[in-house]
Design brief:
With 270 residues, the protein is of the alpha/beta class. It folds into two domains: 5-123, 3-Layer(aba) Sandwich (Rossmann fold); 126-155 and 183-244 and 260-270, UDP-galactose 4-epimerase, domain 1. It has helices at 16-25, 49-53, 70-82, 104-113, 129-132, 136-141, 158-170, 189-200, 211-220, 225-239, 249-254, 261-269, and strands at residues 5-9, 29-34, 39-40, 58-61, 87-93, 117-123, 143-146, 152-153, 177-181, 187-188, 205-208. The strands form three sheets. It has a seven-stranded parallel beta sheet with strand order 3-2-1-4-5-6-9, sandwiched between helices. It has a two-stranded parallel sheet with strand order 7-11. Helix 3 links the parallel strand 4 (58-61) and strand 5. The protein is globular, with a radius of gyration of 19 Å. Bound molecules: NADP nicotinamide-adenine-dinucleotide phosphate (NAP). The site of NADP nicotinamide-adenine-dinucleotide phosphate (NAP) has 27 residues, from strand 5. Residues 3-228 form the NmrA-like domain. Pfam families: NmrA (PF05368). This is NAD(P)H-binding protein. It comes from Saccharopolyspora taberi.
């Protein structure tokens, strides 16, 4: 599909911008779409959908962040098919069945029900959450307080997600596949933070907190109740050992092991 046009939703985000730059390096026309992207796309403004879709053959999809927005997503998938999109690659979460309220489960159902080729990429927690997303301010402040206890997580490097997504967008043979992606090792948050502290030279510590205390603190910080419950629920899964297993999606798609967390830390803070 190398002479095709590929729509990349969330084109300014952690995975999307990496997908766009990899596609551009291969000479593929990649359309970075988001509210502030090169191509304007807004889930909340349907007038932006058709121009973003025009002429696209394939699409990388990130579901909208609104909780329970399955209907909006399936409407978009139908419009994309009508516009001629023949291949969907959807970013999902490995814990999708444990958190159905996110709308990600509905997004998976929508691409499965489409008449186009589809592939679902289910990722574990991103390593880059520590440097580019919600854990970054805590790392900067020196204390990451979470209710994850000694629970372990196989953080996935977002560069591996982008490599997998690009392969699946460009190669044939991935239709109907669900790839679960994790890093190559299990780490507790205390271990992950210790690696960051050691490499960066910053004094950063992990502080265990009780789940109820954590949820109360989120709500006090202005998080809506449902988002606070969702976040705390996902972290509870880690605390209870529910995420403490490895997945082989990177190896299956790319024929190589995933990047190690320590490599991410060296690239980011070295
Ligand atoms: N973080 C994790 O550990 C993790 C793990 C597994 C799965 N996931 C999934 O990853 C997805 C997020 O992907 P990501 O991390 O690559 O993105 P991200 O870094 O969170 O960035 C979000 C992207 O969506 C765009 N966006 C936000 N609101 C929008 C709107 N109303 N309309 C159109 N675009 C909008 C943003 O750009 P603009 O601001 O320019 O619009 C940005 O490009 C989520 O679905 C999450 O469930 C995350």
């Amino acid at each position: 599909m190398t002479n095709k046009t590929i729509l990349v939703l969330g084109g300014t985000g952690k995975t999307g911008r990496r997908v766009v730059s990899r596609l551009a390096e291969r000479g593929v026309e990649a359309r970075a779409a988001s509210r502030k992207g090169a191509v304007r796309f807004d889930w909340d403004d349907e007038t932006t959908w058709a121009p973003a879709l025009e002429g696209a053959d394939a699409a990388y999809l990130i579901p909208p962040t609104e909780l329970g927005s399955g209907e909006l997503f399936s409407t978009f998938v139908a419009r994309a098919e009508q516009a001629g999109v023949r291949r969907f690659v959807l970013l999902s979460a490995r814990e999708v069945d444990e958190s159905p309220s996110t709308g990600v489960q509905a997004a998976e159902a929508a691409v499965r029900a489409s008449g186009a080729e589809w592939t679902i990429v289910r990722a574990t927690w991103f390593a880059q959450n520590f440097s580019e997303d919600f854990f970054a301010p805590s790392i900067e402040s020196g204390v990451l307080a979470l209710p994850t206890g000694d629970g372990k997580e196989p953080f996935i490097d977002v560069d591996d997600i982008a490599d997998v997504v690009v392969a699946v967008l460009l190669e044939d043979g991935h239709h109907g596949q669900v790839y679960e992606l994790s890093g190559p090792e299990l780490l507790s948050f205390a271990e992950a933070v210790a690696l960051i502290s050691e490499q960066s030279g910053k004094d950063v510590v992990f502080q265990p907190v009780e789940p109820a205390e954590f949820t109360r603190a989120l709500i006090a910080d202005g998080f809506p109740d449902d988002l606070a419950d969702l976040f705390a629920g996902l972290l509870a899964l880690i605390r209870n050992g529910g995420n403490a297993y490895l997945s082989d999606g990177v190896q299956r798609v790319l024929g190589r092991p995933p990047r190690r967390f320590a490599d991410y830390v060296r690239r980011t803070w070295g």
